[in-house]
Amino acid sequence: MISERDVLHIAELADIGIIREELDEFTGQFNDILDYFDILDQVEAGAGAETGLYNVFRDDEVVPSLPPDEILGNAGETEDGFFRAPRVM
Amino acid sequence: MGIFAFSAPDPCNAFITRIPEAEYGDGKLAGVSIAVKDNISTKGIPTTCGSKILEGYIPPYDAHVVELLRAEGAAIVGKTNMDEFGMGTTTENSAYGPTLNPADRERVPGGSSGGSAAAVASGMVAMALGTDTGGSIRCPAAFCGIVGMKPTYGRVSRYGLVAYANSLEQIGPMAANVPDISLLLQVLTCHDPRDSTSITAPYTHTPDPDIHGLKVGVPEEYFGKGVDPRVASIVWEGISLLERLGAEIITCRMPSMDYALAAYYVTCMSEASSNLARFDGVRYGPPADPKKQWHESFQERRRDGFGKEVRRRVMLGTFALSSGYYGKYYAKAQSARRNVAADFSRLFSEVDVLAGPTMPTIAFRVGEKSDPLSMYLSDILTVPANLAGVPAISVPCGKVDGMPVGLQIMGRWCADERVIDVAYAFEEGVSA
Known about the structure:
heterodimer, A: mainly alpha, flat, B: alpha/beta, Amidase signature (AS) enzymes, eleven-stranded mixed β-sheet, two-stranded antiparallel ribbon, 12 helices
């Protein structure tokens, strides 16, 4: 069983804001969905998803890229050719 | 050459953005109007993914598929409505309002490429692009009565597709008939070094309706619990038509269907939790408040910008990947996924294609699927092809209660040509 405290913890880990009024609804739905996922318990653990996959490498060559002003054009705040982000510290 | 202009309004809300005047060029698609799902980047045309968090975003580049369409003379006439970031089976879950089914506006068109399906089904455009992560092309094609195809994974470049679940999703064609699907696929399949999963396997085929001697497998699970008996019955009639056209019908089993849906949802949610971290209000979309602390600003932006289904999937994906739960959910889902692929390999050593219904029911009424789990369950018949990366098409197969039903044909990896031939034989057989 997932509790409301667990859902708040997951929201914090995921950096997803939720409001108090949604907590009860999300908690109930998470429990229903995770109960359904329990069907995976019958699957034997295997070697994982790696089989058949291989890395695709290419030479690291300089190729034209998009102009910086076009990249910055969709940003809310920029400064001296950089994105401006909220403070981290 | 020439100009496309919409002659009518958009009563089903199929479009988020319509281009007032779109120009045709020269090439294989000269004179063809094409609508593009709004999670595919279009230079200079807003691309929202059906989300408030990308309101006002104008991509500075075209997706590879859009470059290819333009190079062949198609007119890109607008961007179609969708469930936010592709997360849904109804196209009700869009920040720009629900799309309605042209066959009955009390019902949903299916999703998540519901806008593309409604635009083709109502005759607003000739063809459309959709994307299919777990059925998002085939479901709305079935519900709206058109043809929709998920190509083999890797055959169409995902460069410029706004990522939701990279290992599952493909861009694919939607149109009124199989020859149009084939024509569009000819244009879309082209190796692209900018997508590291892109393979070199151009589709140059012309549909051939001769299916004499073809072995068609019918998995019992596709007619199991949850499948509306009326849908099952009409799809069986369709399969009988394939038999009359010369195919051999062989019933078979696909035991991994027991847990395929759970494996699919754990995988797509996990991938979404990582992919959607880029929507932080810094580089695009309505901006975050730079005066606030990072986490506070980030959480507020995502609370206000994402709808509930997106937040639900990002949170559950984060949980499935978190320490202590990874082994129970994500790792098990990947083992299950390998079992699904193994089931397909075994079956395709005995038969040429697999057939069954695309969806277990006809289109839901608007508002009917309010509980997320019950909506997820309706994807059971479409997700196996995504888990295994194999091609699958939905082709119209009669009606139940006046609503269209889709016949699904799945094929071997990279045998998109065969899947299209069977769908073409069926389409020709129905109209004969």
